[in-house]
């Protein structure tokens, strides 16, 4: 079987560089951070799931958040988006402190996330799923909702936008089907498209490629790169290092709740701390081989 | 067997204050459960608030009938807030437990002797009809035909009930076709996903709880309009009867609850007439005619179980929805 990664164009996408200030180290300051965190920690009983001393996410770039299973990536996502509360720490988004801000307000500020376990709204159609993402629909207010003439025009606008996005994500033929009838990968696409309906400033994707077939992975990567072109900031969690290498401008590595390394993809992957976190004893193997969807070469060939 | 009496009594079940009261309450449940996914097992409590609120405002405070209705509606909104503020943030099944308990507390408060001057305790309340009947625009006489013949007071009750039902159904239809309704249905499917899209889920759930609660208390008022408020009515089994009507017609529809209420009462009327007659004419052996008329409640229970197992989306529900087991 040929690997998905082999289908990626040989050259990675053009990277945004010059994101950091000073020497590269965990917690290095950024030229233009969109998110800044200090001493953010979250414990589950005795387990420290997240303990981040300082971290900045660069604006207008694609940042990958990587780390082994259980490193605390999803928990950090939950903390940043108001779905969970940290035990300590402060963090802000675009200069506004987010401590104690409920999840829906965080989303309204333009920081929109997707979930590792996809949340398609099963008994809504694909199109309704999309429309739900739209902002500024007066008809969503109880008082306005019973007067269709107050929101019909906006609804038309929203529908056009939704159809356009669905076309981009190759879901337009499914628009009238229940979301429940979509495949796992299609749901991932729907969730991402739905998040884009909100016109986000920062898009946070938790394993957007998981379960998506290789051909689609390619176009998904294009979508993510397009988001950057359109001026959005992307923060995504991903296990496949080939993909990370391909699109991420900056990589943050977590292990056991801490940020153990960060930097441009190629440099991070040479970092002993990262190799240690991922590989433990198999330190002679290439990181991309272990984490990518690639068949391991027979011993000795390498 | 006196079939003409059986059929005529059954036909009356089609259009009665009880039918409309159930239809209203089931509409409220459709809002709560069918559309917003809120498991309300205390609809009897909302109906009790409607009925008692109406009767007490008139008897104790000397209000006009329409003021009584307003008081009931305000009371049901307060009750929703009281229930919702602590529980809507919790997982869905907690609301079910709290609502069932709250409805029982309410019933016992109305039943206790401590407030007998206001609530009438076990006797309930009656004799609050003067203001309502004085407002009756229908001159004395009989209206309608066949089994549906009513005097002017009954017609007044029925007309008001029908108007209320029509307004509520229309309102619910408008709401659920709107973007507001879309958010509500989204919350039913996965509230975190809706939250992640920037919607204030708590506020939406509260609005749904209040609207459904208002429908329920309107149902209670319509129930109380023709004769009296009886504490024996607002028990937990009333809640389950309304649920039966809702599931029968289709929980996530607007006309389903109305259809379900009609079928429920027509069947009730039919069975309560036919079963005792079957006994007295010797067709049903081993039981007395009193036992026979309670068999219908057993049948309701069996019917509810069969319904949930074999047609969970109800008569008017979307067949496609069945394909997807949640
Ligand atoms: N709600 C919870 N209760 C208890 N422990 C939790 C909870 N959520 C996460 N954890 C623990 O916190 C740690 C970090 O979990 P998290 O989901 O953030 O990992 P992750 O980096 O996203 O992993 P993966 O790559 O497998 O998705 C894990 O050890 C997990 O067991
Ligand atoms: Mg995770």
From TrEMBL, chain A:
Pfam families with a match to the protein in the record: ABC_tran (PF00005), BCA_ABC_TP_C (PF12399)
A GO CC term assigned to this protein in UniProt: plasma membrane
Molecular function (Gene Ontology), one example: ATP hydrolysis activity
InterPro entries on file: AAA+_ATPase (IPR003593), ABC_AA/LPS_Transport (IPR051120), ABC_transporter-like_ATP-bd (IPR003439), ABC_transporter-like_CS (IPR017871), BCA_ABC_TP_C (IPR032823), P-loop_NTPase (IPR027417)
Organism whose genome encodes this protein: freshwater metagenome
Transmembrane portions of the chain: none
ABC transporter domain mapped to chain residues: 35-281
Keywords: ATP-binding, Nucleotide-binding, Transport
Regions annotated as coiled coil: none
Taxonomic classification: unclassified sequences, metagenomes, ecological metagenomes
Entry protein name: Unannotated protein
From TrEMBL, chain B:
CC annotations in GO: plasma membrane
Entry keywords, A to Z: Cell membrane, Membrane, Transmembrane, Transmembrane helix
Regions that span the bilayer: 12-31, 38-59, 65-85, 94-116, 155-175, 208-226, 293-310
Pfam families: BPD_transp_2
Keyword Transmembrane helix tagged: yes
Subcellular location: Cell membrane
InterPro entries, per the entry: ABC_transp_permease, LivM-like
Membrane topology: Multi-pass membrane protein
Xref: CDD domains: TM_PBP1_LivM_like (cd06581)
Any GO molecular function: branched-chain amino acid transmembrane transporter activity
Designated name of the protein: Unannotated protein
UniProt organism field: freshwater metagenome
Lineage, highest ranks first: unclassified sequences, metagenomes, ecological metagenomes
């Amino acid at each position: 079987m040929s690997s998905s990664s082999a289908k990626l164009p040989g050259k990675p996408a053009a990277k945004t560089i010059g994101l950091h200030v000073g020497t590269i180290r965990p917690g290095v300051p950024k030229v233009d951070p969109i998110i800044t965190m200090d001493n953010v920690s979250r414990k589950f009983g005795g387990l420290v799931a997240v303990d981040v001393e300082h971290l900045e996410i660069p604006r207008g770039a694609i940042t990958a958040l990587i780390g082994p299973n259980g490193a605390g990536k999803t928990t950090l996502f939950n903390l940043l988006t108001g779905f969970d509360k940290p035990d300590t720490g402060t963090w802000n988004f675009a200069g506004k402190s987010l401590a104690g801000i409920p999840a829906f307000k965080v989303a309204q500020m333009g920081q929109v996330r997707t979930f590792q376990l996809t949340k398609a709204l099963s008994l809504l159609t694909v199109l309704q799923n999309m429309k739900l993402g739209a902002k500024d629909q007066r008809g969503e207010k109880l008082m306005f909702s019973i007067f269709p003439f107050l929101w019909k025009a906006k609804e038309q606008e929203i529908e056009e936008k939704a159809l356009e996005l669905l076309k981009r994500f190759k879901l337009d033929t499914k628009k009238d089907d229940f979301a429940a009838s979509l495949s796992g990968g299609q749901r991932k696409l729907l969730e991402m498209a739905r998040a884009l309906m909100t016109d986000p400033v920062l898009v946070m994707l938790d394993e957007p490629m998981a379960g998506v077939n290789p051909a689609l992975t390619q176009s998904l990567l294009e979508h993510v790169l397009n988001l950057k072109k359109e001026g959005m900031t992307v923060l995504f969690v991903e296990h496949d290092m080939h993909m990370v290498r391909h699109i991420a401008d900056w990589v943050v590595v977590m292990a056991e709740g801490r940020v153990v390394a960060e930097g441009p993809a190629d440099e991070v992957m040479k970092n002993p701390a990262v190799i240690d976190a991922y590989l433990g004893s198999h330190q002679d193997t290439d990181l991309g081989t272990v984490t990518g969807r690639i068949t391991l070469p027979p011993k000795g060939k390498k | 067997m006196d079939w003409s009496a059986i059929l005529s009594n059954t036909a009356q079940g089609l259009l009665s204050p009880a039918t409309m009261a159930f239809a209203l309450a089931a509409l409220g449940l459709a809002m709560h459960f069918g559309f917003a996914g809120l498991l309300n097992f205390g609809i009897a409590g909302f109906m009790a608030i409607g009925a008692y609120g109406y009767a007490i405002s008139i008897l104790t405070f000397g209000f006009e009938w329409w003021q009584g209705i307003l008081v009931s509606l305000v009371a049901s909104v307060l009750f929703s807030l009281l229930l919702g503020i602590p529980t809507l943030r919790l997982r869905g099944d907690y609301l079910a437990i709290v609502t069932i308990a709250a409805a029982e507390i309410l019933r016992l408060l109305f039943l206790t002797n401590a407030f007998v001057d206001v609530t009438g305790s076990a006797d309930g309340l009656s004799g609050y009809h003067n203001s309502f009947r004085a407002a009756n625009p229908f001159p004395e006489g009989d209206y309608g035909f066949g089994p549906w013949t009513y005097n002017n007071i009954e017609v007044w009750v029925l007309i008001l009930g029908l108007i209320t039902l029509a307004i509520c159904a229309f309102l619910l239809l408008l709401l659920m076709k709107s973007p507001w309704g879309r958010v509500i249905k989204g919350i039913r499917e996965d509230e975190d996903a809706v939250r992640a899209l920037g919607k204030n889920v708590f506020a939406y759930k509260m609005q749904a709880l209040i609207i459904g609660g208002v429908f329920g208390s309107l149902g209670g008022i319509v129930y109380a309009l023709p004769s009296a408020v009886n504490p024996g009515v607002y028990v937990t089994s009333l809640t389950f009867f309304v649920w039966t009507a809702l599931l029968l017609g289709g929980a996530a529809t607007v006309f389903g609850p109305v259809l379900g209420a009609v079928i429920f009462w027509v069947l009730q009327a039919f069975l309560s007439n036919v079963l005792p007659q079957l006994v007295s004419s010797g067709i049903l052996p081993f039981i007395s005619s009193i036992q026979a008329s309670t068999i219908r409640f057993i049948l309701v229970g069996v019917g509810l179980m069969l319904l949930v197992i074999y047609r969970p989306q109800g008569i008017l529900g979307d067949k496609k929805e069945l394909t997807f087991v949640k």
